[in-house]
Amino acid sequence: MTQLPNCPECNSEYTYEDGTLIICPECGHEWAPTEDDETNNEKVYKDANGNILEDGDSITVIKDLKVKGSSLVVKRGTKVKNIRLIDGDHDIDCKIDGIGPMQLKTEFVKKV
């Protein structure tokens, strides 16, 4: 589900789409979405502490994570360099020394 912009008249967050228009149920204002509204829908990736993550950042794992289908464990405190952010269930694509390529969720990491 995409995040719709707040109403420009009353700043209500309860807007909805009706065809090509966006409508505010509180004040009745109708408007056509602009390109600015669409660019605000970019996903922001945040670590467990709320810091914004970007491609190429270094992170630290904050919880022991079992590797699915293996007896390996990514230990708490493991540092990972040069991450890549992706869309999907797991937000981070990376390569961990001793384990190899894998994907992590942003909720289990913190930015270094």
From TrEMBL:
Belongs to the YjdM family. Residues 46-112 form the Protein YjdM C-terminal domain. It comes from the Bacteria. Residues 3-32 form the Protein YjdM N-terminal domain. Keywords: Hydrolase. InterPro entries: YjdM (IPR004624), YjdM_C (IPR013988), YjdM_N (IPR013987). GO terms for molecular function: hydrolase activity. This is Phosphonoacetate hydrolase. NCBIfam families: phnA (TIGR00686).
